[in-house]
Write a structure and sequence with these properties.
It is a single chain. The N and C termini lie far apart (35 Å). The chain has a 9-stranded mixed sheet, sandwiched between helices. 40% of the residues lie in helices and 18% in strands. The protein is globular, with a radius of gyration of 17 Å. The protein is an alpha/beta fold.
Amino acid sequence: MESSENDAKISEFGPDAATVTLSAGGVTTRVVQAGSGPDIVWIPGGDAAAEYWLDQFPHFVGDFRCTAYDPRGAGETIAPVPPWTIENFADDCAAVIRETCSPPVVLIGLSMGALIAQQVAIEYPHLLRMAIPMGTAARIIGFTRDWMQAEIDFRQAGLRLPADFAACHYAAFAYPAEALGDPATWREIRSAYRVRFGERDPVQLIAQWQACLDFDCREALASCPVPIHAIAFSEDVQTQPAMVREVAEIAPNGTLHEVPGLGHVSFARHRPRVVAALLRQILETATA
């Protein structure tokens, strides 16, 4: 491992935050780490880098060592040419855990990151104390599948959304009406989403989203020994609560937690304290 040169926002993760670059399995991964204590590893959702978790780290770095990273297809991580599978993403995550943490760890992910967390639990159970997939699914079905396929088809046709339109379009799938209707919150979301999606590399987006569409862990999850705490958000239109419930019901040690009033990405900008409090409760209950 070697130090990363891009530390522009690193202090926002915590006073002792640092970045490293990990090379494993043909992938060069940017990793951010802060705090000390038992390990929590945070996996970003699709199209997002480690900074995805900036609103959560401050709630945990006082008691835990928190690690986030850029998954292949986002941020500064460099990976082989796609196509990729969620199994590939899980191998990358396992390398991060082995090389930068002291397993077993708590693994938290949202959206694509939640699918990765489930696959790590299936393939590398010895590395985990528990997995907490939020806004997750055992497979992508129904409206969510049609939406993601339509997005892929749009990008494959060589089309791009202007930044202002992209911000509005993706925000509607990420946040509930309460967040979008608050002018201050909307300004934050719009600013971030203009950059995140207006400048998104279509090849990388397609590769990540196709991996999600191809994912189906139902059979393997049914024999996974890792405790799975699946978190659903009542206003989540990307991964509706029924999809999350299926994960909790299939996993032998699965537990469902449903949070009212929150959307797919409410953990950032909208209601980060609500999500952090639930995560704390899960951690304290599971280790009591």
